[in-house]
Please model this.
Amino acid sequence: MSENKELWMRRMLIFGSLMVLISLAVSLVVYPRLPDKVPVHWNAAGEIDGWGSAFQGAFLFPLMMAAMLILLVFLPKVDPKKKNYSRMSKPYTIIVLVIMLFFMLIHFGSLGTALGYFNSFPSFIQLGVGALFVIIGNYMGKLKHNYFAGIKTPWTLANEQVWYKTHRMAGPLWVIGGLIFMAASFLPSQFLTVTVMIVIAVLLIVPIGYSYWIFKRLDKEE
Model:
């Protein structure tokens, strides 16, 4: 099991590093052509609500990705539940790499928007976020008890059975929420914002409430 864990962690480090280097290389190539203002943030409706300098637009995301990779490779080594990572090395690695891929695509989209290549990038963001929820939801039920990855409430951290039941419930919920998120990307902006906020609220609040309910139910049974 430890060899399998090391294999997946090496894959995370290799592919994650490649994404950082590719993002950095693209930034270096386009940096001289970037305008003074580059979009770096979009709101729930997919509208640009944050701008940065050319330097920030070119290098903010690669630096964030590098920091994220270092952190997510390091965290399993200091987690009190680090033995459980050998039982979830594949889903943990896939989730980390998918998140990094999403950041890389957002980075490319930001640069492309600044250079005038994209007109419908906000819709792509909504589709990307939805796909991210779908993929994470698909692997959520395979995450083992730990302190860094997954739904961390006082009740999931206190009881491994609560952790298991909560993640098994939340996985399909996130998949459905992600599909709704993707479908909502085709709605007019006034409906899109409300839909996105409702979906995110459900995906966050329902698992928290469910973990508390399961914890209390198991406590009564004992």
About this structure: The longest helix spans residues 189-221. The chain has two domains: 1-119, 120-222. Helices lie at 2-30, 54-78, 89-114, 121-140, 154-158, 160-184, 189-221. The longest strand covers residues 37-42.
